């Protein structure tokens, strides 16, 4: 689930999706919200709009989301430190030109509550990863593509990768958060070089990989990753069509064998583009 407020575009968007990795069942809901129906509290966390109530603070949150086919009612509690991207919480605007992007995450949120799908209610528990980002969206670059990838490692480390490709530059890097709150930064080999098994969207024609290689030489990390959805999932509304999938990885992290789960977001067309300045 994500919600976005884009004042410069006069857009407010609510997106919600559910994937059953066992059966392959998938459903999403995405809608624009009128400015008069969107409220954001001046202090603390207090977001309200049709279909969503999100309240609390940095330690504890409650989220209630409603769609035509189901609803989510969960409580989240931070059980680890926050992750500031690049160690400071700010980095160049998607790797290119102009203004910066600000982002911090709460990657360890104990989650309990319920999920109701088509009239059937399920108790849920687990760990959530919450991301908060703001800054200029680079909607004017026809070659802009990016991958945002988050990994929870068995040792307790949390890794967040940005791989950003544009006509001007390419930037692929990882912020690693350790359980004690310390962090490290490292260069990542471009994910596009190890992307494979493209899936072409029947709705937009855009192609997205469903397999990746993650190589971080300075961390002795070499992972293979694949989508765990039965087919790629594309949001076609919002600001731009994009893919959101759950994924699994195996390989080596800091020289030790690991397996784990991931989430991948991809924006842009990842099919071969011979006329692009970048691959």
Alpha-beta classification: mainly beta
Number of helices: 0
CATH topology, anyone?
AttH-like fold
How many whole angstroms does the radius of gyration measure?
18 Å
Please trace the helix and strand order, writing H or E for each element. Answer: EEEEEEEEEEEEEEEEEEEEEEE
* Helical content (DSSP H or I, runs of 4+): under 10%
Unreliable stretches covering 5 or more consecutive residues: 274-279
**Largest pleated sheet:** 9 strands, antiparallel
CATH superfamily: AttH-like domain
Beta-strand residue fraction = over 45%
- Gap between N and C termini, in Å? 30 Å
Determine and state the CATH class: Mainly Beta
Query: What is the residue-mean pLDDT, rounded to a whole number?
Result: 88
Protein name: AttH domain-containing protein
Pfam families: CrtC (PF07143), Lipocalin_9 (PF17186)
Plain-language structure description:
Pfam families: CrtC, Lipocalin_9. It comes from Dactylosporangium darangshiense. This is AttH domain-containing protein. InterPro entries: AttH-like_dom_sf, AttH_dom. By secondary structure, the protein is mainly beta. It has a single domain, classed as AttH-like domain (AttH-like fold, Beta Barrel). Helices cover 0% and strands 58% of the residues. The protein contains no helices and 23 strands. Strands 4, 5, 6, 7, 8, 9, 10, 11 and 12 form a nine-stranded antiparallel beta sheet that branches. Strands 13, 14, 15, 16, 19, 20, 21, 22 and 23 form a nine-stranded antiparallel beta sheet that branches. The two termini are 30 Å apart. The relative contact order is 0.14. The C terminus is likely disordered.
